[in-house]
């Protein structure tokens, strides 16, 4: 399925086709958008109108208690992930999925602040090694850009851009091309080994969390049958 961003107008056109008696699965094939995403758009449109289809420049506020309650309801098997998202007014089922992965990997769930903070705009100069570590921590924490920004005292925008670069080009994409010397040349052998170990640890942690999450979903599906 396509992961590109869809403008509100295009989402609306797809929803119009849904109202014209096309099924979500037919639209999935036609527009290359997962049917669950289309249903999420439908829910937002029904509740908020066209405004609900626009990409927000801020994020919603969720308390730790709400996150835990939503996770427990989802893991109980009584509700689907989409039903829980609707019950708790969660912006998207993928948000809930991220909380569950964090919960299953025994990471601490924190309150989500609303709006933008000073860390959204204030950045700082970083080394290549720092950028890699920040990206790996962010990816291991379900792409919680704000948490990474707060932890490493960098801006939200910096973390977001570094993650995108890393996903597209790996370590090499995080190098500062403005200088004449390559940043990795400044690292000692010990630092390079530590960096590789950090990457392996994060990857193993991610795989373990995904495995636990999939087992939980399989158990829920068995209960629902």
UniProtKB/TrEMBL annotation:
GO terms for molecular function: sequence-specific DNA binding; transposase activity. Pfam families: HTH_28, HTH_Tnp_1. Residues 130-182 form the Insertion element IS150 protein InsJ-like helix-turn-helix domain. Transmembrane segments: none annotated. One of its GO terms (biological process) is DNA transposition. Keywords: Coiled coil. Gene3D superfamilies: Winged helix-like DNA-binding domain superfamily/Winged helix DNA-binding domain. The keyword Chaperone does not apply. InterPro entries: Homeodomain-like_sf, InsJ-like_HTH, IS150/IS1296_orfA-like, Transposase_8, Trp_repressor/repl_initiator, WH-like_DNA-bd_sf. Residues 186-217 form a coiled coil. Belongs to the IS150/IS1296 orfA family. This is Transposase. It comes from Aneurinibacillus migulanus.
């Amino acid at each position: 399925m396509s992961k590109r961003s869809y403008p509100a107008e295009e989402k609306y056109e797809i929803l119009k086709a849904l109202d014209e008696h096309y099924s979500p699965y037919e639209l999935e094939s036609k527009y290359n958008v997962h049917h669950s995403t289309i249903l999420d758009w439908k829910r937002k449109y029904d509740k908020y109108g066209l405004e609900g289809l626009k990409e927000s420049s801020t994020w919603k506020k969720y308390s730790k208690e709400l996150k835990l309650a939503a996770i427990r309801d989802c893991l109980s098997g009584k509700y689907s992930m989409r039903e829980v998202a609707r019950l708790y007014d969660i912006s998207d089922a993928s948000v809930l999925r991220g909380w569950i992965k964090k919960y299953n990997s025994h990471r601490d769930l924190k309150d989500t602040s609303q709006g933008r903070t000073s860390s959204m705009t204030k950045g700082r100069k970083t080394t290549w090694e720092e950028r890699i570590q920040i990206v790996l921590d962010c990816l291991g924490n379900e792409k919680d850009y704000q948490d990474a920004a707060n932890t490493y005292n960098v801006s939200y925008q910096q973390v977001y851009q570094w993650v995108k670069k890393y996903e597209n080009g790996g370590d090499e994409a995080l190098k500062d091309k403005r200088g004449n010397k390559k940043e990795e040349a400044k690292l000692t052998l010990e630092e390079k080994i530590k960096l590789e170990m950090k990457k392996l640890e994060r990857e193993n942690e991610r795989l373990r969390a995904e495995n636990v999450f999939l087992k939980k979903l399989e158990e829920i599906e068995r209960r629902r049958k």
